[in-house]
Amino acid sequence: xxxxxVSTGTVWEEQNGYSRAxxxxxxxxxxxxxxxxxxxxIVEPDSPYKQTLFAxxxxxxxxxxxxxxxxxxxxxxxxxxxxxxxxxxxxxxAEFFGDVMPCCxxxxxxxxxxxxxxxxxELEAVIDPxxxx
Length: 133
Hints:
The chain has a single domain, classed as CATH 3.30.1330.40. The longest helix has 18 residues, at about 50-65. α2 packs parallel to α3 (about 85-95). By secondary structure, it is of the alpha+beta class. Helix content is about 25%, strand content about 30%. Strands 1-2-3-6-4-5 form a six-stranded mixed beta sheet, covered by helices on one side. It has helices at about 10-15, 50-65, 85-95; strands at about 5, 20-25, 25-35, 75-80, 105-110, 120-125.
C-alpha cells in the first residue's frame, strides 16, 4: 500500500520523529495538533474556542495536502486540559464541521506539549478509494 506524509515543520514533529498526517490508501490520520503557529507559539492562550478553531484549520490543511477535506473526517479526538472548557471546545468543533458531524471523543488530560495550550485535536478521514495518491 502506498503511503504519503505531510509535515508542518513544527519543532515537535522533528524532535519526536512523526508526521502531521499520513495517508495510507484511502485512510488519513492527522496527529494531535495544537494551535501553534509556524514558530511553535500557541495562539490565543486564553481562548479554548479560538485554539480549537485554529488547530482544526491547521489539521484540515494537512488533509487538503493529502487530497481530502473536513467533509471526509469520520472521527475526531479533542484533548482538553480543563473539562470546564469542553463547552467552548465543542462549540468550535460543531461550527467547524457543520453537518459533517464526525464521531467525536472529548478527553480531559493533565497537560499538553506546551503549557499555554489548552486543546489538542486529532482527526481521521476516509476518502473515496478512486481518489489517487
